[in-house]
Amino acid sequence: MPFKIDHRDGAVLAWSLTDDGARPDRDTDYRPTVSVAHEDGDTAALDRIRPHVADLPAVTETRYERWRRGFRHDAERVLRADVRDVDRVLDVARTVAGWGAPGTYRLFGVDHSREFRYCLDRGLDPTPERELSVLELRASEVERARDGGPREVELDGETLTGDPADLAATVEERVHAADPDVLSVSGSDLLAGLHERAAEQGRDYRLGRVPGFQQLAGRSTYSSYGRVGHSPARYNVPGRVVLDHSNTFLLSAANLAGALDLVGRSWKPLQELAWASIGTVLTAIQIRAARERGVLVPWRAWRPELFKTARQLHTADRGGFTFAPDVGVHESVHELDFASLYPNVIVTRNVSPETVRCACHRGREDVPELGYAICDADGYLPEVLEPLVTDRAEVKAELAETTDPDRREVLQGQADAIKWILVSCFGYQGFKNAKFGRIEAHEAINAYARDVMLTAKERLEAGGWRVVHGIVDSVWVTEAEDATDPTPLRELARDVSEEVRIELEYEAEYDWVAFVPRREGAGGALTKYFGRVSGDERTFKYRGIECRQDGTSPFVADAQRDLIRAFDRTRSPEAVCDRLARHLETLRAGDVPPDELTIVQRVSKPAEEYDRATRNAAALERAERAGLPVHPGQRVRYVVADDDADSVDRVRLAHESPDRYDADCYAARLVRAAESVLSPLGWDESRIRRRLAGTRDARLGSF
């Protein structure tokens, strides 16, 4: 079976692994296809357009086939068009879709990625049949952006330096000698830079198993749920998988073993899977399931939202279960979590786009609060997700028993990769562009999940426990003050699990947990808390506070964790403030290495669009002057050097090895982090500053 697919010169090279390398099978007969159906199933209309489709320059052949256009549809006659080249598929689809009134002709199988499309059409599982050999090629962002090419790279742990052209030649030689299946690079722009240096020398340059180098996509900026992201340009070398670590979520959230597990589930080859989003991988798994059931994959989602009463609209427009945290420090707290709550709701309640509000059970009220009917016929989405839920449970069970470190790494990667697919399956039902999504399914899942959590809350309280916080699929409880003989939590968890048909797991016990208030407004912050795990005085759990935030500098994060340890030892706000004073003293004395003060920020717009002279704007302008442009959606790393400056001198970029910092700026950040620690006790920033103003010598108890 091929592990890598290359489209070259009108043919496909399907690379299969051998004992000592890889060999290509050249497929010259492959033609990608698109399918066309009339919106009303009018096959006579298809007869009329068939000659016009056949006359399109990119179309080589047309024929009729029988497919289902949806999971609740019978098979019908559709027009299939074979396209000369994979790069012409979209042109053909746009042309045909433009005939007649909008939506008259429905197109299917249009926007699959190149390698995935080939595996689907040929029925090929691209899971590697042996362990892949990997060559690591690294260069810093500065080196990759250097005018004239990189002068320093790291190849399998060895640092190589020199003239860019000579360096490119050395890399080529080493790659050929190693003959890896995978090129694991810090950024695929490094490959482009090496090729450019060789081209300047008039040399053919080859990092693949055969000559050739392709740019598959240019860089782009996108917005998702209000967050700006950046997708780097993508490059390809034939015969080798390129893993770009600057453009992969899966490899950072899991590992190679986890990614390979998803290759087998989705049939999306490793290179494409590595740069794909979680939603894209989930869609690939769903597409496979649809194709196996004879269902076509729509180009665009056409399912309209069904009519709802005003009451249903109000009720449906709610998220998951939330129980506002009881702000403060709570002793002996227990955490319980539902295992994969949303996926299990889908599986146990048969929630699927084609089962929710089905016509065959109209009038039946199955979904709590909403009154939607759920069809008795098995839904496709539960069938897709049930193996993932079951397999993850089995992987976690083996992980709990296994001590072999290599096996544990594989299992952890698989568990993490499946987890992210399961996490996305619920939200993707509400995504407007989801191939098989439906908003009513999204609403039904939420309603069932709220009902499950409320049931758990009621049973726990009846058993003598007080809920101090609950969100989505987790609940934290302490023994109720008036409880005389509370039911053991593990027993309650078993009872709840049996009642709701979803496993409620006893997650952890904490000696204490502190829930942080909102900075603005009343009540507790839903996702900000910290506490000490019971039985281990060195293990703490942090969520949402500064030490868990990506942009926090290492010094401030370490100091905050130290303040929490001081609080754990003393339970004294004054002692925490005294410990804070020591960190501030170190900071103001200039004794903190500047690289420990690096701030990491994701930028949402280019430098010229900033109206105010912010730190980010200064960092972006400084990066541009250094020939290191930062695009919207990318991160910029800097140290604040002089916060009072209104120019690029306000910051120093991390790669400039800054030798000074603005102590007042970082002192403010440190005090803010201390506020997160002490705010559960009612201490705000002003009270902390008053304590600091009166501090002379730190008390012994602060250590």
How would you sum up this structure in a few lines?
Pfam families: DNA_pol_B (PF00136). Keywords: DNA-binding, DNA-directed DNA polymerase, Nucleotidyltransferase, Transferase. This protein is of the alpha+beta class and 703 residues long.
Task: Give your account of this protein's structure.
It is a single chain. With about 700 residues, the protein is an alpha+beta fold. The protein folds into 5 domains: about 30-110, Alpha-Beta Plaits; about 135-290, no CATH class; about 315-380 and about 430-530, Palm domain of DNA polymerase (Alpha-Beta Complex); about 545-590 and about 665-700, no CATH class; about 595-660, 3-Layer(aba) Sandwich (Ribonuclease H-like motif), CATH 3.40.1820.20. The chain is built from 21 helices and 26 strands. The chain has a 7-stranded antiparallel sheet. The protein has a 5-stranded mixed sheet with strand order 10-9-8-11-16. Strands 5-6-4-7 form a 4-stranded antiparallel sheet, with helices on one face. Helix 12 packs across helix 13 (about 380-400).
Count helical runs. Answer: 21
> What is the H level of CATH, i.e. the homologous superfamily of the largest domain?
B family DNA polymerase, palm domain
CATH class of the largest domain: Alpha Beta
CATH topology-level name of the largest domain: Palm domain of DNA polymerase
CATH architecture of the largest domain: Alpha-Beta Complex
Unreliable residue stretches: 696-703
Structural class: alpha+beta
What is the beta-strand fraction?
15-25%
Number of strands: 26
Tally of domains: 5
Mean pLDDT: 90
Shape: globular
- Give the biggest beta sheet: 7 strands, antiparallel
In the sheet with the most strands, the strands line up as 17-19-20-18-21-22-23
How far is the first residue's CA from the last residue's CA?
62 Å
